[in-house]
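Long-time lurker, first post. I've been practising inverse folding by hand and with some scripts of my own, and I keep getting stuck on stretches where the structure tokens seem ambiguous. Below is the full token string for one chain I'm working on. Before anyone asks, I'm not after the true native sequence, just a reasonable design that respects the backbone. If someone could post their per-position residues I'd love to compare against what I wrote down in my notebook.
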């Protein structure tokens, strides 16, 4: 049985230069055409869209494996560490798996547990956030009168389900990329909300002074 070690430590078979990756992040046990991925890290691994942390999971050559949810497993380096007599079988398997676009595979994966929760950007910007994330049905909010009535309900629905729908609809480079984009939306929503409160307060003061 071949064992491949992965991590930041220079003693690993595959050295990954990323501070989010643990010193000894994971092992891959290879037996014939079968692999077992053993995560031993602090930040875990995203395997085909599912979070794996301090546990084992069976994988296939070419699967989507993101160390700490950000760094792709370099399958070419894994291949170089395999027994030469098995190399052709693995290359064929890798080529077959690579014919599947990551964006298509991603849609079938559930949202990682770490990304579940309320989406403030989706709630606050509603249809604008939705369109930018590839979701178009909330445009009904632009219909006169109907949109005004539906807005609170749609905003709440987007807040609850926004992360899941955005994860499925758009092509993301990594979990970190997804988190960064959604965090930006949330921060913009916060600043716009605070700005509207400040402007409203100043407006009230202005009206009060005019009426004196």
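-- Answer (accepted) --
I ran through it position by position. Result:
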């Amino acid at each position: 049985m071949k064992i491949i070690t992965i991590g930041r430590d220079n003693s690993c078979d595959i050295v990954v230069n990323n501070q989010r990756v643990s010193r000894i992040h994971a092992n891959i046990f290879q037996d014939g055409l079968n692999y077992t991925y053993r995560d031993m890290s602090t930040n875990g691994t995203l395997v085909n869209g599912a979070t794996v942390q301090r546990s084992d999971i069976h994988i296939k050559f070419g699967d989507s494996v993101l160390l700490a949810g950000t760094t792709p497993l370099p399958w070419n380096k894994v291949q170089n560490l395999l027994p030469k007599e098995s190399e052709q079988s693995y290359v064929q398997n890798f080529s077959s798996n690579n014919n599947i676009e990551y964006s298509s595979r991603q849609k079938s994966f559930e949202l990682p547990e770490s990304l579940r929760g309320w989406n403030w950007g989706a709630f606050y910007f509603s249809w604008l956030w939705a369109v930018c994330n590839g979701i178009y049905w909330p445009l009904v909010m632009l219909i006169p009168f109907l949109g005004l009535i539906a807005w609170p309900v749609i905003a709440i629905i987007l807040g609850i389900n926004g992360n899941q729908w955005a994860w499925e609809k758009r092509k993301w480079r990594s979990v970190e990329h997804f988190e960064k984009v959604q965090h930006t939306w949330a921060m913009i929503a916060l600043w716009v909300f605070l700005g509207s409160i400040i402007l409203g307060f100043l407006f009230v003061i202005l009206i009060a002074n005019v009426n004196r």
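A couple of notes from the structure itself: Residues 99-108 have pLDDT under 50 and may be disordered. Helices lie at 75-80, 87-98, 102-107, 120-125, 127-132, 146-169, 175-210. Happy to go over any region you disagree with.
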